[in-house]
Amino acid sequence: MDFSLSEEQRMLKDTVERLVRETYDFEKRQKIAASEEGFSRDVWGQLAELGMLGVPFAEEFGGLGSGGVDLMILGEAMGRGLVVEPYLSTVVLGGGLIDLLGSAEQKESLLNAVVGGETLLAFAHGEPDSRYEPAHVRCKAEKTGGGWTLTGRKSVVLNGAAADQLIVSARISGGHDDEDGIGLFLVGKDAANLKVHGTPGIDGTHVAEIALDGVEVGADAVLGTPGACFAAIEEVMARAIVMLAGEAVGAMEVAVETTVEYLKTRKQFGKALSQFQVLQHRAVDMRISLEQAKSLAVLAAARLGEPRAVREMAISAAKAGIGQHARIVGELAIQLHGGIGMTWEVPVAHYAKRLVMIDHLFGDTDHHLERFAALSDAAA
Amino acid sequence: MDFSLSEEQRMLKDTVERLVRETYDFEKRQKIAASEEGFSRDVWGQLAELGMLGVPFAEEFGGLGSGGVDLMILGEAMGRGLVVEPYLSTVVLGGGLIDLLGSAEQKESLLNAVVGGETLLAFAHGEPDSRYEPAHVRCKAEKTGGGWTLTGRKSVVLNGAAADQLIVSARISGGHDDEDGIGLFLVGKDAANLKVHGTPGIDGTHVAEIALDGVEVGADAVLGTPGACFAAIEEVMARAIVMLAGEAVGAMEVAVETTVEYLKTRKQFGKALSQFQVLQHRAVDMRISLEQAKSLAVLAAARLGEPRAVREMAISAAKAGIGQHARIVGELAIQLHGGIGMTWEVPVAHYAKRLVMIDHLFGDTDHHLERFAALSDAAA
Amino acid sequence: MDLNFTPEELAFREEVRTFLKSKLPDDIRAKIKGGKRLVKDDYFRWHKALSEQGWLGSNWPTEYGGPGWDPVRKHIFEEECYAYGAPRILPFGVNMVAPVIMKFGNQAQKDYYLPRILDLTDWWCQGYSEPGSGSDLASLRTSAVREGDHYIINGQKTWTTLGQHADMIFCLVRTNPDAAKPQEGISFILVDMNTPGVTVRPIILLEGEHEVNEVWFDNVKVPAENLVGEENKGWTYAKYLLTHERTGIANVGSSKAALLHLKAIARDQVKNGRPLIEDPLFRNRIAKVEIDLMAHEMTNLRVLAEVQSGGAPGLESSILKIRGTEIRQEITDLARRAIGPYAMPFQSEALDEGFNGEPVGPDYAAPIAQQYFNMRKLSIYGGSNEIQKNIIAKAGLGL
Amino acid sequence: MDLNFTPEELAFREEVRTFLKSKLPDDIRAKIKGGKRLVKDDYFRWHKALSEQGWLGSNWPTEYGGPGWDPVRKHIFEEECYAYGAPRILPFGVNMVAPVIMKFGNQAQKDYYLPRILDLTDWWCQGYSEPGSGSDLASLRTSAVREGDHYIINGQKTWTTLGQHADMIFCLVRTNPDAAKPQEGISFILVDMNTPGVTVRPIILLEGEHEVNEVWFDNVKVPAENLVGEENKGWTYAKYLLTHERTGIANVGSSKAALLHLKAIARDQVKNGRPLIEDPLFRNRIAKVEIDLMAHEMTNLRVLAEVQSGGAPGLESSILKIRGTEIRQEITDLARRAIGPYAMPFQSEALDEGFNGEPVGPDYAAPIAQQYFNMRKLSIYGGSNEIQKNIIAKAGLGL
């Protein structure tokens, strides 16, 4: 058993932490989050330059090839800065799918473009009534001529409006909840009959609603084997959850630090708030939640490379547990800040919002508790 | 809307409170609880003498005829004294069933004997695998000659070993979870092929396991219409829950008072515990739980006379809510007393035990939450 | 003991329902039901309807134009208003400054201000909190210095709800900076918002809405006759006001309406192929909060009955504040969870009347996450829930 | 980073398993699995088996006869012992007084006491708490007055676990009542339980068991050579001991075993016609505590790894105490709920070996409610969870 970071991981951590610290102060973050695109081309370019966009991939694409721990490290640093760059959508989800399923040509052209920061991807997977069920796909793919025609709606797609290419999941066969029968297709942002409607997210990220009203794509747009893509979808979601777990930990760290600092500074009734035992203990509750969240993030990160049964139990444990702990930390951070924590102008409010909203991505606490119980039964 | 007590109710309250205060100090309660029978013939006689054993019945049997509020008042006083007398089993459940279903002769002979304190009853209803499901009856009643033969097992029967007569629920027809098909039968404690195995309860009450291995009873032992007894069973359980809700409130009151007093007295680090804000707020949490429990007890008591749909929603709300609040108060009472709260010798530990165990009678919090949700749906 | 309404109370409920059906404008009701943004005119029209009915001063004695309702009627009125979809009655004039003027104001103030509150001539806001004094209100620093027949006010108030719409503000100000205790040098004064030197600056809350404000006073000259009661006795009046504010704090009506809305959402949302409301876990959570709300409503009614028979609520009003806000927050939390991924999109413009852009997700989704974050304020303002527990510990339990 | 055990660690785990299978007496294992009462001889036989294997002093350095395990091995050992059904190792001798003697005792004390701990000649108990000093240990009042080459001890200790079986007690006593601070006049002394004037009186816990005791000292004459370290420096040793006690505080192994037991119960119990473990609500609660325990185990391992690489646990050990006890309590609470009505019967005699009376309910039911009530102690003793939060607030967060 070994909890230490490798030399490469320590370097990665230093690099990304420095980048966030130096280029992503709160004011800038707010501007970026409020921008039309919802991220910064400039920061994205720096991430590319520093080799950050290839981290999860094989060495030939600039990656470290070491998996979950790297993602956790990246997530934690980005969580500390509330970074809204499209890393999850472009690199982890989009890049991850190409990495797992892409042909040599697709990897060559697309992965390199992703790693170089030239191409943005988004994974158009969720649908209006799929809630958190990853196998729920109603969007249809019909074979037409040499290609495919896609029809359906996609919902709450991370960075969907900024993407150059969408990876759209669509049903080839089977019932709308079946794991079998799902295909993945590359769709360029300018495709005919494609409508992408972007909105900001309540936490400063950006999402999109997407309508595919008979979008035609060629045979070269197919990713992997149509109908047999679910395992890859599950795997990139696992990766995304590891990164998100890291992000939650990073954001929780800042929320705890900021709150502790505030308690020491702010006075009421002639005493610093930190003198009130009840407030002390609440800060401790936040700190305890942070510690548990860290443990779960480490667990999920370290288990990402294990066989599915082991991996997914850790993934669901982490997502369910962190959902609860992040909410505790987010809500207490606001409460302990009092009125000031309710305002747009203070960073901690935005940390709290992100912490709560992380539970709405890739399955909430209830979803993963239920899933964990099923996986745990199967493992027993 | 009117929350005041009637003149009779105020007198009832005074009478029972005085009785408990004057005859049931903690030391005596502990002796009674540890006795073989598990109650005091002496106190029971006094309850009879004061007319307390007829309270829930019609005036001709010495009752007030005013229903739930009386039961709540009795429960609250008994809860304050942790009274273990067999009131629920003999008067509320047993007497209640006779009151609802008994023939004129049965009422004449049995109700009067109950009210006079001469006869003890128990309701042998729960079974080894019935959990909290009131319609779950596997014990069989078969018509044999002019009477019936009863075969089966009954579990955790309140005051089962002390009862002169058991009222046994048994299945005449239907599946083992059906509401229809349940009959009720009077069985004398000396009946052949009846085995009653009494044990103390962990909270000082007494319960019994009962085996009926072909117990024969005559036609005069039938209570109500065989097969159509479920409504009455549900109704006496509702009455029992009202009294139990009152009991929980009484016990919670004492637990809160005792804990607040202890915090004022006990010193640590040169200060009274009551100076520590965290402990103050925990005592406040106890007090808030008490207030909510009171409200739910009042609600259930006042709704006891309403039609089933309204009555049972209030009953399940009260039992579910009080289950949670009683646990909060019980656990915090121990915690705030520290080590001393862990010992047999202090009253508060026994209040805590009773408060937790009330959740194990007549359906626990989960059972009643589920039931409440179903009733609430039906009412919508 | 009888929890049923009397025939008279039932008749009164019908009267309220009839009034709501005929006098609450449909567009306002639709906004409330849809969680849309209200503009000043919406509040105005609703208050006007109440005013014309003689029901605006629902807590006022009849001598000042109130309807003279008992607590049960007030409860019925509040509950019916929320159930039907009426906006809340803004308390600043009618339920905050008015009781203080009635109790401590002079005849001229009563004659002048009270009718203007009832007929909506004056729209009030509150000047209590300051940046440095939240829960510890008595540490306030806004100063009022007497100069001839005027006071000169300097300082800053904050958290002034809807101050952007107000004509008048009632303020706690420090008139004696040298008083022995911070509570002693405070006065209660009424200020016209149009006086030179008064500046209102918006505070945007974390969810993005402009609901509260900072109000700055820069050498604001206020006639001495605007002082209520005696100079330096303002703390007494402030505490009286806070007691009055507390009466509506139980939030029963709004929580009941929110619970119904939550159930409607849970019936529409689908989880594992079935309506979310049938999901055992979610169903259990709804049942739990529904029971909590039933208990809380009973507590509220018991307190009201106590008040009606002449008692004064003690620790109960703090319990009502705590439980009322916890329950209200729990309901918004469940609503947020209920809508799943659709909690994320932040369509601020969709909350405006006449929005005809492309809706994202089901029509009830847009305001839900915002409401959840906005409702975090409940456990902070009006004396934070921690402060309420301090009060219960000290005053209620003697700890 | 690699959470998998190394081949060497896996081999060690096999060794532990083999040892348990061959050396833990079956009757003891059956008692543990069945929640039955242990008698002194049960503890003795288990400790003897460990002693013979050289594993009793699992935390001891090899120079004193310990196995020299690293933290991961200690963790594996603990987990396997609990999983197989071994009783806990009583810490009083081997993990409490022994480290103090090793660190602060003189050579004679080391030579005399340590071997007697390892070979079970001496059975130890603890004399720390007093009736008036629980969490505030430094306020203790038991006095030791030097008279010639003896100390005369008077006073009372309490919560002395299994003191009824002990040969020796280590005590904190006040040797200087006039010291400036309460911590300063305390000494650490070893007392033979057979000395005249020592009286052990049982304390029955709320669930009815005799687990702890009061120990009274009435002019107890103890040789001065039994003083450990310097007079009046006992507080330092006491704190050192508490740090050592804390290492096993995470309760991971016992909670894992208890969770498995809970799941077995939930598979056997029936609700709504299906195994309770399939009930969505109960299943959810089990999943929640299972995840909490996974997180907690990881925290524990992370702290152990930190210790192994030379770090000292700070606020983490208080977090481990809090979470470890909360999780353990939650599991007993779920077990209590799981057995439904059968939590009520209190068959004390059914917990004795050789009980052949009529069992009430399923065989696992008898000890469950008792265990639930007994486990309330976890959040009280060893520094209550409130005290742990104070420590984290002050030392960990600088509040």
TrEMBL record, chains A, B:
An MF annotation (GO) of this entry: flavin adenine dinucleotide binding
Every Acyl-CoA oxidase/dehydrogenase middle domain range: 122-215
Domain Acyl-CoA dehydrogenase/oxidase C-terminal, residue spans: 233-371
Top-level lineage group: Bacteria
Pfam families: Acyl-CoA_dh_1, Acyl-CoA_dh_M, Acyl-CoA_dh_N
Keywords: FAD, Flavoprotein, Oxidoreductase
Cofactor(s) for this UniProt protein: FAD
CDD domains, A to Z: ACAD
Residues of the Acyl-CoA dehydrogenase/oxidase N-terminal domain: 6-118
SUPFAM superfamilies referenced in this protein's UniProt entry, alphabetically: Acyl-CoA dehydrogenase C-terminal domain-like, Acyl-CoA dehydrogenase NM domain-like
PANTHER family listed in its UniProt record: ACYL-COA DEHYDROGENASE, ACYL-COA DEHYDROGENASE FADE28
UniProt record similarity statement: Belongs to the acyl-CoA dehydrogenase family.
Protein name from the UniProt record: Acyl-CoA dehydrogenase family protein
UniProtKB/TrEMBL annotation, chains C, D:
Family to which the UniProt record says this protein belongs: Belongs to the acyl-CoA dehydrogenase family.
Organism per entry: Nisaea acidiphila
Alphabetized GO MF terms: flavin adenine dinucleotide binding; oxidoreductase activity, acting on the CH-CH group of donors
Cofactor: FAD
Domain Acyl-CoA dehydrogenase/oxidase N-terminal: 6-119
One Pfam family matching this protein: Acyl-CoA_dh_M
Domain of life (superkingdom): Bacteria
This protein's GO CC annotations: plasma membrane
Record's protein name: Acyl-CoA dehydrogenase family protein
Alphabetically ordered keywords of this record: FAD, Flavoprotein, Oxidoreductase
Domain (Acyl-CoA dehydrogenase/oxidase C-terminal): residue spans on this chain: 232-395
Taxonomy of the source species: Bacteria, Pseudomonadati, Pseudomonadota, Alphaproteobacteria, Rhodospirillales
